[in-house]
Write a structure and sequence with these properties.
Blueprint lengths: L6 H13 L12 E6 L2 E7 L8 E6 L2 E8 L18 E8 L10 E5 L2 E7 L23
Antiparallel strand pairs: 1-2, 2-7, 3-4, 4-5, 6-7
Length: 143
């Protein structure tokens, strides 16, 4: 039998039980990081224990939606659960993307429980130099 001594972990577990597991109508949130790396915007989501087939990524206009479902592991009939802290159910996160991002070329990679999305910055949003054109003929105004 496992023994826990951290009272705050017990409070977290109790709060999770009161709020219930994430459902399709009321999903739980997932932890994420977002940062710019060169000419890409990178968003990383923590989804440990979720299979790649259980992840759904949608983009509609400038709204990015990531949904995932962590299902319980099937157990034999004679197994008695002693401790269950890993949350199950549906997780979701929505992010409003700026118009400066190229949503047509998003790349998704899933490795070691981390879903990483790489969103390129649109060409029109990148800094550029503007050439100055003009004539070399200078005219004096006499009055």
């Amino acid at each position: 039998m496992l023994m826990r001594t951290d009272p705050f972990r017990e409070l977290d577990r109790l709060a999770q039980q009161l709020m219930g597991q994430g459902t399709w109508s009321r999903p739980a949130t997932m932890a994420m990081d977002a940062y710019r790396e060169g000419d890409e915007y990178v968003v990383a989501f923590d989804l440990p224990g979720v299979s790649a087939e259980a992840i759904d990524i949608d983009v509609e206009r400038n709204m990015l939606t990531v949904k995932a479902e962590r299902r319980p592991v099937t157990k034999a009939h004679d197994v008695q659960m002693e401790l269950s802290e890993r949350p199950l159910g549906v997780f979701s996160r929505q992010i409003v993307l700026a118009d400066t991002l190229d949503t047509e070329h998003i790349k998704a990679d899933y490795d070691a429980g981390v879903l990483t999305l790489r969103i390129p910055i649109a060409e029109r949003a990148k800094p550029r130099k503007i050439a100055i054109s003009g004539t070399s003929d200078r005219k004096e105004i006499s009055g």
